[in-house]
Structure formats: structure tokens, C-alpha cells
Design a protein that fits this description.
By secondary structure, the protein is mainly alpha-helical. It is built from 4 helices and 2 strands; from the N terminus they run ααββαα. A hairpin with a 2-residue loop joins strand 1 and strand 2. The longest helix is centred in the N-terminal third of the chain and has 30 residues. About 0% of the residues are buried.
Length: about 100
């Protein structure tokens, strides 16, 4: 069994890339399950209030981490590359 400091040696580059994508997907799924449980226990209106507060904190943390990793700045809560991207490319990201 791999030790914690050598855990990554068992993975190929492709395995690691797939794991990163999988973990991002799992984060989204976790948020859905979390919201549905809060909604179940407290009702939709209260769940939306709690979600709004949690989203604001979570978004800032996530975007700082991604910005640091990918090397982009944030401008008023929006990744600067998105603000500089041609409109057609942004629309393509949303629709394709």
C-alpha cells in the first residue's frame, strides 16, 4: 500500500488528469446533495437563503485557488480572462 507522501506514484499523468476532473464533478454533486438535504430539513425558501450565504464564501475560496493555480486575476468577482474573451467564445462555452 502506498504511503501518504508517495500516494501519487501509482498514477499516470492521464490518471491524475482524470482524477482532477472527477474531483471537480464530485464537488458539484456534493453541493447538490448538501442543498437537497437542507431543503428537505428546512424548506426551499430557507435553503435558498443558506445556499446564498454559503455560495458567496465558497465562490471566493474556489476562485482564489483556481486563479492562483491557473495564473489569472479576478476583477470584481469575475475571472479577468473571461472579461477579455470575445463574446462569441463566451457564448460558445455556455452553449456548445
Amino acid at each position: 500500500m502506498a504511503t501518504m507522501d508517495k500516494w501519487d506514484e501509482q498514477f499516470t499523468q492521464e490518471d491524475l488528469a482524470r482524477l482532477v476532473v472527477d474531483m471537480m464533478h464530485r464537488t458539484v454533486v456534493h453541493h447538490v446533495f448538501w442543498f437537497k438535504e437542507v431543503e428537505h430539513q428546512m424548506g426551499t425558501e430557507e435553503a435558498m437563503k443558506i445556499f446564498d450565504a454559503a455560495y458567496k464564501r465558497s465562490y471566493d475560496t474556489q476562485m482564489k485557488r483556481l486563479g492562483k493555480f491557473f495564473g489569472f486575476e479576478m476583477v470584481e468577482g469575475v475571472p479577468k480572462p473571461f472579461l477579455e474573451m470575445p463574446r462569441e467564445k463566451l457564448l460558445s462555452l455556455l452553449t456548445d
